[in-house]
Amino acid sequence: MGIGAFSLSLTVKDIHASKAFYEKLGFSTFGGDIDQNWLIMKNEDCIIGLFQGMFEKNMLTFNPGWNSDAAEVNPFKDVRQLQEELRAKGIAFVSEADPETEGPGSFIILDPDGNPILVDQHR
């Protein structure tokens, strides 16, 4: 089951301090808007998102339809199809994509240890 490009979404207290820290580790800004308190940073194939005031916990993130360079991948499995396949396997959802929509959508599930997993389709 291909669920898209992987990144780690980090809840940060001070996005400017976090940006400076990860730049020292070799990450550079890849996307986002620091004025809106979110950045996507990349170091080779490693991608992290920094989010101030948006999420309660760090979470694993997957983006269907994208590769690690945020370039479109075709074909890809729509987030609503992934959601139904996981539901059929007994996975419970914290939030769900509206099955009556098309295009962007997302859902959140929890792993057995309570770690949130966001599947976030942007197109």
From TrEMBL:
Species name for this entry?
Answer: Trichococcus ilyis
Q: Give the signal peptide as a residue range, or say none if absent.
A: none
Top-rank taxon: Bacteria
Arranged from A to Z, the UniProt key words for this protein are: Dioxygenase, Oxidoreductase
* PROSITE patterns associated with the record: VOC
Q: Write down the PANTHER family for this protein, in alphabetical order.
A: BLR2520 PROTEIN (PTHR36503:SF1)
Query: What is this protein's name?
Result: Glyoxalase-like domain-containing protein
Q: Does the keyword Oxidoreductase apply?
A: yes
The molecular function GO annotations come to:
dioxygenase activity
